[in-house]
Give the backbone structure.
Amino acid sequence: GGNEMNQKAYELREKRLVEYLGAKVVANFVIATRKEIERHQLDVLPSDILQALLQHVGEIVELQRPYDHEESSL
């Protein structure tokens, strides 16, 4: 049923996240997110917060990219 598909999608997504970011980063992010949910006494973080975070990270990485290239061309 649909639940099996969700489970499969979840497992693939988790595998990919761990592959790219490492299990520790993924786990720490989940823990940090949970703490903030509790601190703000919410059920979940607003989805726009997570999207804003992803956008922010992407922009920071892009802004820092030129410096990375200069260092790595040694």
The helical segments are 2-21, 23-39, 47-72. The radius of gyration is 16 Å.
